[in-house]
Please model this.
Amino acid sequence: MILEPLAPADRPVPTWCAAEVLVNRHHADRYQHLRLAAPEIAAAARPGQFVMLTAAKGHAGGPVLPRPMAIYSWDAGEGVIDILYAVVGDGTRALATFTPGERMVVVGPLGRGFDIQPDTGKVLLVGRGIGTCSLTGVAQELAGGPAEVVAVTSGRDAGAVIGADLFRTHGAAAVRAVTDAEGSSGVERLRADLCRELDEHPPQQILTCGSDRLARLSAELGARWGATVQVSVEAHMACGLGYCHGCATGPLDGPLESPLVCRDGPVFRLAG
Model:
């Protein structure tokens, strides 16, 4: 697969804040739901952007580097942002210890989000696991508009499926939750199901995150339907701002640096 940066676009200047933790509770499976009071970030957030969360508390010992997390949803009126994260290592275990009323250092919104063209009539969203959090904001942004949203959210089992309720809340025309446990998430079956349902009226744009095999499937479907494909790339990063140059998308031994996930992405055009 070849990743190409999207066309340059204006993006909000990220802000730093000590956000009050409003909610930090178990969501499902190994996932936590974090809600933060961050009015400036909520006012500027766009679908597919992310924030950097500092897991260390004050001067206490703990993970030094912040963790990048997709913005799951936001409410500019209420001044809040929601994050879903998987508890998988020291950093996310430290994040899970924050309780309501504590403050967490947050930087955002960061990155280049999804580019929805104004003449798009239908968008297909294809997400896997926690990667689906990069896509839910698209449904939120398009809610009530002319573009129809069709969403696929995939996981190991029903507990690991993310975003189905939020897609429905924002008026998605169809939401397909598929799982490994039921055998409905396999690429061959999913390809056949989507072709059967969408061949007659296919989407003009396909957006995906969370799985290389689903990204390849999205590329195949894009070629079949003449649709453009954008993929949100997940990566470890130290700053989220482009200073550390630690999240290059290509090999590290080339003569030129490849695009950075944080600065040039995380959303890229999938060219092949």
Remarks:
- Residues 96 and 264 are 30 Å apart (CA to CA).
- The longest helix spans residues 212-225.
- The two ends are 5 Å apart (CA to CA).
